Amino acid sequence: MERQRAPKVVIIGGGISGLAAANDPVVFEATNSIGGVWKHCSYRSTRLQTPRPDYEFSDYPWKNREDPSFPTHNEIVEYLHGYATHFNLWRLIRLESKVTEVRFLGDRQKAGFTELWGEEGRAVPSQPIWEIGVVTGTLETVQWYKCDFVVMCIGKYGDIAKMPVFPYGKGPEIFQGKVMHSMDYCKLDENSASKLMTGKKVVVVGYKKSAIDLALECAEANKGPDGQPCTMVIRTLHWTVPSYSIWGLPFFLFYSTRFSQFLHPRPNQGLMRSLTCHLLTPMKRGVSKFIESYLAWKLPLDKYGLRPDHPFDEDYASCQMAILPDNFFTEADQGRIRFEKSSKWWFWEKGVVLDDGTKLEADVVFLATGFDGKKKLKSVLPEPFCGLLEDLNGVMPLYRGTIHPLIPHMAFVGYIESVSNLHSAELRSKWLARLLEEKFKLPSVEDMYGQANREIEVMKQTTRFYRRHCISTFSINHSDEICEEMGWESWRKNNWISEAFSPYNNQDYKE
Ligand SMILES: Cc1cc2nc3c(=O)[nH]c(=O)nc-3n(C[C@H](O)[C@H](O)[C@H](O)COP(=O)(O)OP(=O)(O)OC[C@H]3O[C@@H](n4cnc5c(N)ncnc54)[C@H](O)[C@@H]3O)c2cc1C
After folding, report:
1. What is the secondary structure of 90-128 as a DSSP string?
2. Taxonomically, which superkingdom (predicted)?
3. Ligand 1 pocket, 155 CB below 6 A?
4. What does the alpha-carbon distance between residue 53 and residue 238 come to, in Å, rounded to a whole number?
5. Which atom of ligand 1 is nearest to the CA of 70?
6. For 72, which DSSP code?
7. How far, in Å, from the CA of 155 to the mean position of ligand 1?
8. Each residue's pLDDT tens digit, 351-363
9. What is the average pLDDT score of the chain?
């Protein structure tokens, strides 16, 4: 069957995923700017943690590519503006256009729950199948747009906070001070942020990147004579890394080359490879221990009781490795940042109570407790699709990290993570563009589920934090499979030595 017309594609979200996917569709962005988390969910001190050359579009290199510093969030937004201007994307982007609802116009019996995805396995239906409700600017009316294909790029972070649950009567309502989620702190201007922290007893709940940056901002605001310490309340410790150099060796050698990823399990590996992988387990553990030994030597982890119980590998495999800001432990040594470990905590009138009964006084409690990306998706997707987002493992099954086998004519970009999310988003967008051009067909729904489940099994085998849906230990294999499906060469270096020992980044997937 010949396609009669160009498909009408709508992208929801103007962060890096939405921009990477933008080819010729309409992009609806809820806020007044592109950039996503880098514009609306960053503190003054937030910097990229991925090295600059790994976080760039393959066809738009950073001007200062060789600059070893990590770009600030403002630099990233500027870079994205440059990209949108260079490729004339502004004509496609509708700012201040929030998608409030997505309706399915197709026949559910025929579309989702069949042997083939979508209409006979084709990415583009014969007639519009989705209707998108958009509220623009300050207007209260919803405008409806029909389209053939929707690309969901609304992001895993930001917009909807993950809030801790408290026993009845021990929640924030009894606390006399101020409680704020890290997401709301991002919205404050410099003056208000500093006023909120200076001379105040602050508790920061959490120990991931947002919590670490927040504690540091708090310590810096309290350097004066009236300064008060900031206390971090930590449930789960994670490994933090001061730089991308371990005992003098570049970090990429440990996880980002074909040779290093050979040690880790991957989906679709045969019996021989599974056996080899099993035999190489001590070497894999050795790499993790080697990095842990460096971190314990370089950072005062034992002094502050901050050495995690789980191996470094598991944080890396779940994309949770945070780069530590330079002066974090200097502030701790000066007493401006303190640490308390507690598996549970709740409020009292003057602060928070830890599981051993310790009462911490606080004027302000920051919840750096993360975001609920699935809830965000559920808030716009219609039934029955919003009920299909998680499998029994609590992970969204996505074929090639992009297609949900039971949600037809829709793709998700930005939901699986890797060391560079820009890299993951761009390659998947290239694959998606070819799918929409019908250059290849998707396998059956059952086969797509099979592939997604095998990936989830590998993640479960690799890390207890598998729900974060991160492919960092088998990212090259993931890209290989995508390339093969697009009809591209999967081994993309000039020679065997580079193929084995140099890292893969976006430049390797240049068209
Ligand atoms: C503090 C922090 C540090 C990070 N550091 C790194 C790092 O070093 N390296 C790395 O690779 N990744 C990092 N990440 C992950 C980061 O989220 C990704 O790199 C990337 O920016 C995600 O882009 P996205 O487009 O998928 O989502 P987002 O950036 O969240 O963009 C989603 C966009 O969708 C819009 N939107 C949401 N709902 C709607 C709606 N209903 N209608 C219309 N528009 C909507 C939002 O306004 C937003 O602009 C970090 C994240 C955070 C929060």
Report:
1. GGGEETTEEEEEEEE-S-HHHHTSSSSSTBTTBSS-SS-
2. Eukaryota
3. yes
4. 25
5. 8
6. B
7. 5
8. 999 999 999 999 9
9. 93
Q: Is the pLDDT of residue 299 over 70?
A: yes
Pocket residue to mutate for ligand 1, from 92, 157, 321, 386, most atoms within 8 A of Cβ: 157
Average pLDDT over residues 316-331: 94
Q: Where are the alpha helices (DSSP H) in 206-257?
A: 209-221, 252-255
Distance CA 205, CA 445 (A): 42
To test the pocket of ligand 1, the residue of 12, 16, 37 to mutate (highest count of ligand atoms within 8 Å of its CB) is 37
Of 474, 481, 9, 95, whose CA–CA distance to 257 is shortest? 474
Domains (range + CATH), the chain = 2-158+373-470 (3.50.50.60), 172-242+299-367 (3.50.50.60)
Question: What tokens appear for 372 in the block?
Answer: 């609920």
Between 493 and 119, the more confident residue is: 493
Buried b (16+ CB within 10 A) or exposed e, 26-51: bbbbbbebbbbbbbbbbbbebbbbbb
* Ligand 1 geometric centre to CA of 213 (Å): 17
Which residue's alpha carbon is nearest to atom 37 within ligand 1? 154
Q: Is 145 in the pocket of ligand 1 (CB under 6 A)?
A: no
- Tell whether the model's pLDDT for residue 395 goes beyond 60: yes
Q: Taking the model in full, what pTM does it have?
A: 0.95
Q: From 77, 143, 154, 376, give the residue whose CB has the most ligand 1 atoms within 8 Å, as the site to mutate.
A: 154
